[in-house]
Automatic annotation (TrEMBL):
The lineage of its organism: Bacteria, Bacillati, Actinomycetota, Actinomycetes, Streptosporangiales. The keyword Methyltransferase applies. It comes from Nocardiopsis mangrovi. The keyword Cytoplasm applies. Its EC number is 2.1.1.77. It is found in: Cytoplasm. It is an enzyme of class 2 (transferase). GO terms for molecular function: methyltransferase activity. InterPro entries: PCMT (IPR000682), SAM-dependent_MTases_sf (IPR029063). Keywords: Cytoplasm, Methyltransferase, S-adenosyl-L-methionine, Transferase. This is Protein-L-isoaspartate O-methyltransferase.
Amino acid sequence: MTAGARIARVLSSRGVIQDPAWHRAVLSVDRDAFVPDVVWAEEPSTGLYAPYPRDADPDVHRWLGEDVSLVTQVDDGHPAAAGGRGYTPTSSLSQPSLVVAMLQVLDVEDGHRVLEVGTGSGYNTALLCSRLGAGNVTSVEVDADVAADAEKNLAATGYTPHLIVGDGAAPVAGGPYDRVLSTVAVQTIPAAWLQALGPGGVIVTPWTPGPGFASSVLLRLIVDETGDAHGRVVGDAAFMMLRAHRPDRLGYGAFVDEDAPGVAEGTTATNPRWVTDPHPGWKVVLGHLVPHIGYASYEAAPDNTTAAGEATVYVFDRAGTSWVLGEYTPAGGPYEAKRHGPRDLWAEIAAARDVWERLGRPRRDRLGVTVAADGDQTLWVDGPGNSVISPCNG
């Protein structure tokens, strides 16, 4: 059984593939041809990423037949951890079911011209070429080494799209395009993507409104006659960040100094555990209304019976201007707290929570985004006329 047939069988048996045209594309493309000589997998004991040679490790061959993503690069191609291991995945061969789901949401027609942001290994690009013809596909990749490997992979499988090495958020020549498909997550939708499309053009992209809080969701936006774009959250989409948008890989200790001059001590009515609430709708609202933050939460030691259920929660501004600390206890608030810097992050979180509650605790599928032609971005619930605005920032 060919690699394409193997993946198609897995996806069709799960009901993932609904569009016969994309089914034919998956059948025709050899996914194995886009797997590099070495892939990377996280070590449970260390959290680091270890190399797995394709031709020497049986796990790689098992993964090839499964609906899983494969990490193809760590630390931007320069593994920085001990023993040749890496800290952070920076490029991957995406999970086939997610690839197909995004392509189907893209809703292409014969003759459509697609701008893809994030070539990666080239597999997704090959599917686009199979469906639309290589002459209708332009793909942008920021990493020159990744782009070179993708070009080789594509050529070896008979596809010759227009490949560009560059910043995926920057303007791209050759438009207008009918569709923009991003395989990297963004915090804000680049204005260049809207400018690449005419009225009726579609953008499909993973979107992460706030680092550390919202796992990426999938947005589908349609450009209107004014050049603005509107659309809803249509699903999950766990992807790496566009390099221009991703935060530094720094822990809370890089931002929090409890011994710094000017640290204020007191209490807060804000429940510190709100920042760890996994409700997907809340995570999007929080990330949008309390931007550029991260957090760290530490549970009391399991053998500390006097502190059972307690936790220390840090929230910090990634710009390094402000941080807060809250001591959660099951007894309820007010909670012991510390604060440093101009932003009162506990107040911002409380205001965001109040907005979300007043809107009826919307699920993620009720949320949408409007992006103005200049890139200004507005979150809304149920329709563009119902903006999600916090009194702290709007």
